Amino acid sequence: MVKAVVGANWGDEGKGKITDMMAENADIIIRFQGGANAGHTIVNNYGKFALHTLPSGVFYNHTTSIIGNGVALNIPLLIEEIKSLTDRNVPKPHILVSDRAQIVMPYHILFDQYEEERLGKNSFGSTKSGIAPFYSDKYAKIGFQVSELFDEEYLKGKISRVLETKNVILEHLYHKPVIDENELLNTLKGYRDMIEPYVCDISAYLDRAIKENKTILLEGQLGTLKDPDHGIYPMVTSSSTLAGFGAIGAGIPPYEIKEIVTVCKAYSSAVGSGAFVSEIFGDEADELRHRGGDGGEYGATTGRPRRMGWFDCVASKYGCRLQGTTDVAFTVLDVLGYLDEIPVCVGYEIDGEVTTDFPVTIKLEKAKPVLKKLPGWKTEIRGIKRYEELPENCRNYIEFIEKEIGYPITMISNGPGREDIIYRESPLKK
Ligand code: GDP
């Protein structure tokens, strides 16, 4: 049984917590896209952790954690991340890395920085982790696969071919030092030694696991609106954030994905630039940012303050649809308990017309939010375990949003911990 946990919005929806929780009953958790640019925050018995490359199941002894072929693999960061867990007494997780995963090269990180510098005020707000240059090279067919690290002659030839163009760009476009072939070869030999214990033919491994009826979780990074095809292009990430891509980035048949849990946060937040229709500013935003998440809405990787906004039904309906949602996990609802009234974005006004269909970026830039105010519940809802025990206005908020987005909200997260979850029967669940 394969299940996916993905985001409906701009990322930071709380996927890490939901995956960590679902991992309790899973055998394998696999990251299928993205790199160390975003992070999941997880709170459990060992403490609070920000994971960047490792899947969220690494805290259990019974699970295998996999880095799939679709991931941008930063080898030294992965090794450091493993160490950061074992240093804090987490038992060493069982980790496998796809022999088809490609490697974030040191020059990808440099090119990311140099390009953002060159673009100046037109920059993408990249986390400068090398992700865009990495995926560009992958599709330009000059990326390095993990498997290639184990053939030194092949590696030498490839380094020399790839550096021909990289060095021209470094010298003449960015006016920066060029890369030495031998130095790069030595770096890659170091990477080979670091990664060797983890390398595996993952699609064959997963094929066996599926036949043995294992429970497999696909863990997505970011959310629908950051997908390069269906998101707010060009302010997107460089690999698909959709559950459908899970089949490709893990190496399994698409029809094996039986459950798609799409995570939606009870309000909105986004990082980086790009249209954000329900965005709020000033004191209103500061208060929500300060109270949000678990200790405020600041980037898990960068510490950057996140942009804040009200729940966006238009974006979330679209976000859930593109994911192929079977269940919505509605998170961080406890944070909204301070508000007398909670505005929700129920439509976009574009050139005088109101729509509930999420538009292409050019039109999105012109969209103004149509807000509806719902009454708040003004109480603490943490600790509540049963749906019926939630305050009436809180249930009304959930049910209003469920109707607007049209996908069943079957899980409600009312705190950062694993046990802070309320299961709900939804009338929309087939
Ligand atoms: P991800 O990348 O989608 O996993 O999102 P983040 O790592 O940014 O997670 C959002 C933040 O909210 C983290 O700090 C979580 O610990 C926290 N969080 C997750 N679910 C809840 C919840 O239901 N309530 C509260 N208060 N915090 C939560």
Quick recap:
This protein is 32% helix and 21% strand. It has 430 residues and is an alpha/beta fold. It has a 10-stranded mixed sheet with strand order 9-7-5-2-10-1-11-16-20-21, sandwiched between helices. Strands 15, 17, 18 and 19 form a 4-stranded mixed sheet that branches. A 3-stranded antiparallel sheet has the order 12-14-13, with helices on one face.
Q: Your description of this structure?
A:
With 430 residues, the protein is of the alpha/beta class. The strands form five sheets. The chain has a ten-stranded mixed β-sheet with strand order 9-7-5-2-10-1-11-16-20-21, with helices on both faces. Strands 15, 17, 18 and 19 form a four-stranded mixed β-sheet that branches. A three-stranded antiparallel β-sheet has the order 12-14-13, with helices on one face. The model has no long low-confidence stretch (mean pLDDT 94). It has two domains: 2-74 and 206-423, Adenylosuccinate Synthetase, Chain A, domain 3 (Alpha-Beta Complex), CATH 3.90.170; 102-196, Adenylosuccinate Synthetase, subunit A, domain 2 (Orthogonal Bundle). The chain is built from twelve helices and 21 strands. It is globular. Helix content is 32%, strand content 21%. Helix 3 (106-119) crosses helix 4 (131-139) and helix 5 packs across helix 6. The chain binds guanosine-5'-diphosphate.
